[in-house]
Design a protein that fits this description.
Blueprint lengths: L23 H12 L6 H17 L1 H5 L5 H13 L8 H12 L3
Length: 105
């Protein structure tokens, strides 16, 4: 059985709620690197952590862009079609458009 080294993350002084430290998934990624025989330096860990934080921040719009559940959307579409609002005046369209407008890519 191969021994697995647990890597300690290097403290970064500017962590805030907007820039959190790495979570377990990222630690596991580093442990996988160690299990393959590589030994990243503290500087390499800092660089990778910064890269991951930047990637996480760049995708904030995806986390914010929450549409209503599919069942709710289908209900809106049904009511729109029943009332003859199958165009941009319908509630489904306005609901989805608001989410897109409030959270642009």
């Amino acid at each position: 059985m191969a021994q697995q080294r647990i890597l300690k993350l290097v403290e970064m002084p500017n962590h805030t709620p907007e820039n959190p430290s790495l979570n377990e998934a990222h630690i596991a990624k580093h442990n996988l690197i160690a299990a393959k025989g590589l030994s990243p330096t503290d500087e390499e860990l800092k660089v990778e952590e910064t890269r991951l934080l930047e990637e996480y921040a760049s995708l904030q719009y995806q986390r914010d862009r929450r549409y209503p559940h599919v069942g709710e959307q289908l209900d809106l579409l049904h009511h729109d079609m029943t009332s003859g609002k199958g165009d941009k005046t319908g509630e489904w369209y306005k609901t989805v458009k608001k989410v897109k407008d409030d959270n642009p890519k």
